[in-house]
Structures are given as C-alpha cells and as structure tokens.
Automatic annotation (TrEMBL):
This is Cytochrome P450 55A2. Belongs to the cytochrome P450 family. Residues 1-20 are annotated as: Disordered. InterPro entries: Cyt_P450, Cyt_P450_B, Cyt_P450_CS, Cyt_P450_sf.
C-alpha cells in the first residue's frame, strides 16, 4: 500500500459500543497493514490474535516511548513521552525491576485479602443509593462507577481518609470527558504536588501501604529516587481508573441489552466471574496501550518491519478474532474463555499489573448491583446514551438510571 492510501487511525466506532468495522475487514484481508496517525507517521497495525501475541512478547520490540518511531496517539502523548518514564514505558530489565517494587500489592493473594474491603465499598454505595431513592434519575457514573475504583486504589496506596474528597474531585476532573486539556493538566499537576507532599510526610511514618513500600525502596541505594516514588504512585493512582469506570458502565448497559443473561446473573451471582471475563473481551476498553517500536529489522508474517517503525498491536481486534472466539460479535457470558487468551488486559511482560484487582472489583460490582437494585434501568433511551468519542476507547461518560 502506498502512504496515500493508508487509512487514518484510530478508526471510528460506527455507533454506540460497536468496534470499528475496519478491524473485521483487515482481519480477513490484510492482517498487517500501515495506518496514518494524527502526526502523519505510519506505524503498522496488527489485527489477528496470534500476531498480536507475537508482537507483545517479541523482545526485539520496545515499549520505550522516547524511542524514535514509537507511535503516539495524541500530541499530549508526545509531551508525556518526555516525562520521566515509569515501568509502563520501560523495557527489560528495568521494567521488571521497577514493576516488582509494587507487584506484591497486585497479586491474586493480596487481592483476595482486599475482597472484604471491595465488597463493603460496593455494598455501602449501593445501600446509600437504595436509601436515597430515585425520584429523579441518578447519574450512576457520579454515584457509583467513579467512586468505587478510586476508593479501592486509595486504600492500596495508603491515601489518608481525610484527603479522599479532595482526590476524588481531582480525579473526576481528569476523567470527565468535558474538561479541557488545560484543566485536566492542572488537575494532574495538583495530584502530583499532593503526592509529593504525602511522600515527604509518609517518609517519617512508614506504614503497610504501597507508597510506604516505594519509600522503603528509595532507601535502598541504587533503587529509585523520590521523583520515581511520586511518578509510580501517580501512575497507579490514575492508570486504569477511566477504564474501570467505563467497564462498570458498559457492564450495566450490556446486561440491560441482554435481559436473559441478566436474569441468569440475578438468579446466580456466581456467574459474575464469567460475565466479567466476557465483558472485558467484548468491549476491550483499553485498546491503545499495546503499542511498540522495532529496535531492529524484523519479519512478521512475511512483512519486513524496519528498525524505528512503530507497531500498534490491536488487542481490541484480536478479541474479536473468530479463529479464537467463535461468533466473536455475540455477547455470551457462558462462553468458556481461557483468561490468558482474553487480551483485554494485554499479553506478555507488560500485561496489566492490576488484572486480578480489576476483575475482583468488577465481579464484586456485578454480584451485587442487580441484587440490591433489581429494577435498575436506564432513565433515557438507548440511543441517548453518551458514549465516548467514536475514535477514542469505548466508554460511557454519563449514565442516568432509575430503579
Ligand atoms: C478493566 C480494567 C483494566 C483494563 C481493561 C486494563 C488494561 C490494560 C492493558 C491492555 C495493559 C497492557 C499494556 C501493554 O501491553 O503495553 C495494561 C497495563 C497496565 N495497567 Fe491496566 N487495565 C485495567 C485496570 C487497571 C487498574 C485498575 C490499574 C491500576 C490500579 C492498572 C494499571 C496498569 C499498569 C500500571 C499497567 C502497565 C503494566 C506494565 O507495563 O508492566 N490497570 N492495562
């Protein structure tokens, strides 16, 4: 293909939460193709499940954003690449060294120990919704989907209870799709300033939380410095937050759109785990993180990719690959998916560090939501739902409901 023909990426969703139609076409016609980004760069787009997995485990490819050719999705991304990198943007061995400093707070065992807190947080929010009643429609985002994941990560980080309302306000500004870039950037700066002060204060009073663990790493010569502590804490505070909010909202709408599956879940809350598995596959709401750049020339399915060329490995497309998921466009919570093959959380070394946590939160939400609010329904028509912009990650920005 010549560059003039390269389609512009990201592709747009045709409507609501439907993935871009271009992915299905490319899977059957051209699994490795060039696309054009906002800055006229032309990375490769990889759309088949097997090749996406190959890209995400190929050590000849880099996730370092400063590497020339790394595909940036927005001008803001280019600016972010100049910041001090955290493990998200590092390659081996530095990547694992820094990731391991916080990994124990995200193991299945640690997440299991958090489950009572998660369930209590979900249930107390649902109980207050029940108590509050719904004479007028209630925005589920504000009163449920946004606070739950924020409160859980604050707990892990060790944010003092008295600071939670301030942080929640800042986080709402960051994730609210209608904030301007400048306002969102100010909120980021405020959060970083806040964390810097907290790290200083906590240094004299170490506890059992994640920030204290990072400060302790800082005390080991050659490990990390104070700026790293603040950057990693900030990363964990904000990474995945918007995705979690979107997954809760998308889960509610998806269940309402599939009443017999909703009925099954209502009767048997243990179906929450397979429901969450399918929800994450079907919507794949974090679909731009899996980008890489070639460090040397490589060949992928016969296609030469030169050193310095970027690659977007589309986990969103891979999760709709019929070679791996029969009838991929059908939402079916009874599908027996191998979690490792579900690429919603990525694949390989950079696979989401918080996967177990995210699953536990979503499971707690969908075990209880329709139990506590059995008549929960939309207060608007389906075609009035405010989805994220069509070329952005799929999400729902506002969800008026009644029950
Ligand atoms: C349903 C919710 C979530 C989804 C779908 C999701 C998805 C992803 C994906 C696709 C990646 C892979 C990036 C790559 O291969 O380069 C990733 C990485 C990551 N996620 Fe999540 N995520 C979620 C929730 C969270 C939460 C709640 C947090 C923080 C508490 C988080 C923190 C991270 C971090 C730090 C990484 C980087 C891991 C690394 O580079 O080693 N995620 N996530």
């Amino acid at each position: 293909m010549t560059s003039q023909e390269d389609p512009t990426f990201p592709f747009a969703r045709p409507k609501a939460a439907e993935p871009p139609a271009e992915f299905a076409t490319l899977r059957s016609t051209c699994p490795i193709s060039r696309v054009k980004l906002w800055d006229n760069s032309e990375p490769w787009l990889v759309v088949k499940h097997d090749e996406v997995c190959n890209v995400l485990t190929d050590t000849r490819l880099s996730k370092e954003r400063q590497c020339p050719g790394y595909p940036e999705m927005t001008p803001g991304g280019k600016a972010a690449a100049k910041n001090r990198p955290t493990f998200v943007d590092m390659d081996a061995p530095d990547h694992m060294r820094q990731r391991n400093m916080v990994a124990r707070f995200f193991t299945q065992e640690y997440v299991n120990s958090l489950k009572p807190f998660i369930t209590e947080t979900v249930n107390s929010h649902l109980d207050s919704l029940v108590k509050k009643g719904c004479e007028k429609p209630v925005n589920l985002v504000e009163h449920f989907s946004l606070p739950i994941p924020s409160l859980v990560i604050y707990h892990i980080l060790g944010i003092p209870v008295e600071d939670i309302s301030y942080l929640t306000e800042m986080n709402a500004v960051r994730t609210n799709g209608s904030s301007t870039a400048a306002v969102a950037q100010d909120a980021n700066r405020d959060l970083l300033d806040y964390l810097t002060k907290l790290v200083d204060k906590r240094a004299t009073d170490l506890k059992e939380d994640l920030i204290s663990a990072l400060i302790a790493e800082q005390l080991t010569p050659g490990h990390i410095d104070k700026l790293d502590v603040v950057q990693v804490a900030f990363l964990l505070l904000v990474a995945g937050n918007a995705t979690m909010v979107n997954m809760i909202n998308l889960g509610v709408v998806t269940l309402l759109e599939h009443p017999s599956q909703l009925e099954g879940l209502r009767k048997d809350p243990s179906l929450a785990a397979p429901f969450v598995e399918e929800l994450c596959r079907y919507h794949t709401a974090s679909s731009f993180a899996t980008r890489r750049v070639a460090k040397v020339d490589i060949t992928l399915k016969g296609q030469i990719i030169k050193a310095g060329e970027g690659i977007i490995a589309s986990n969103q497309s891979a999760n709709r690959d019929a070679d791996v998921f029969p009838d991929p466009d059908i939402f079916n919570l009874h599908r027996k998916t191998d979690s490792v093959k579900n690429l919603a959380f990525g694949f390989g070394d950079h696979r989401c560090i918080a996967e177990a946590l995210a699953r536990a939160e979503l499971e707690a939400v969908f075990e209880s939501l329709f139990q506590k609010l059995p008549n929960l329904r939309l207060a608007i028509d389906y075609d009035e739902i405010k989805y994220s912009a069509p070329h952005k990650d799929v999400g729902i920005v506002e969800l008026p409901v009644i029950w």
